[in-house]
Amino acid sequence: MKIQNPGYLITESQQNNIIKVRGEGEIAVQPDTVSVNLGIVTDSKELIDAQQQNSMAANKIIDTLIRSGIIKNHIQTFDYRIEPEYDYNQGTQIFRGYKITHILQVKIEDLTNIGKVVDTAVQNGANYVANVQFTTSHKEYYYQHALTIALNNANNKARTIANTLRVTLNPTPILVIENGDIIQPYESQQLTFAKITSNTQIQPGQLIVKASVSAEFKYLSIGG
């Protein structure tokens, strides 16, 4: 006999009676850390001039961030690109100059300070802001709780199936496979803009920590 439904599979043979289930668990947590990409994009006809402008702007922003309380090793280069730019006139490619993009990834641990950090960077030369991503420094702690919920969910599903079929379930699974974890923002924060007004408000929302398992349980049929 084989009964299949979304989320579980039951197989029965002369040798093994097995219920297979998938358990899921999730919890909502407050983030305590955020990273944001702050960029400096400069254009110039001459490559050396563009590099010098970009370097000066980047150094100014880094110094300003450190003075505002950001730890130096929480500032790192995320991307650095030099790109030639062209105009097109009646199908003819005309060299216009160079664009240099230097993106810094900044980690902020005081979430009340996000808007101030962004505003300060923009006021001191940043003209690109993107990828505001919230996370938690206690990921493993919260994941363990979500995993417990997932295991309980798998046990409850197996018990429900066994009770419905009027069979006796062995409550200890013979196999448990951890399917991995997911952390996703409850409220997504994705920003990309060149200018920001003062007193920027960026809300952290919540994070959803998810865990899932696959489990197999043995059961005894009536008379088996």
Structural write-up:
By secondary structure, the chain is α+β, with helices and mostly antiparallel strands. The protein has two domains: 2-30 and 138-187 and 201-220, Protein of unknown function (DUF541), domain 1 (Translation Initiation Factor IF3); 33-134, Alpha-Beta Plaits (2-Layer Sandwich). Helices cover 26% and strands 45% of the residues. The chain has helices spanning 47-67, 114-123, 139-165; strands spanning 2-5, 8-12, 17-29, 33-44, 75-89, 92-108, 128-135, 168-169, 175-185, 207-220. The strands form two sheets. Strands 1, 2, 3, 8, 9 and 10 form a six-stranded antiparallel beta sheet that branches. It has a four-stranded antiparallel beta sheet with strand order 5-6-4-7. Strand 5 and strand 6 (92-108) form a beta hairpin. Helix 1 packs antiparallel against helix 2 (114-123). The model is unreliable at 186-197 (pLDDT under 50).
Give the domain tally: 2
Strand content: over 45%
Q: How many distinct helices?
A: 3
What is the average of the pLDDT values? 85
Task: Give the CATH H-level superfamily of the largest domain.
Answer: Protein of unknown function (DUF541), domain 2
CATH topology of the largest domain: Alpha-Beta Plaits
Q: How far apart are the termini?
A: 14 Å
Give the number of DSSP strands: 10
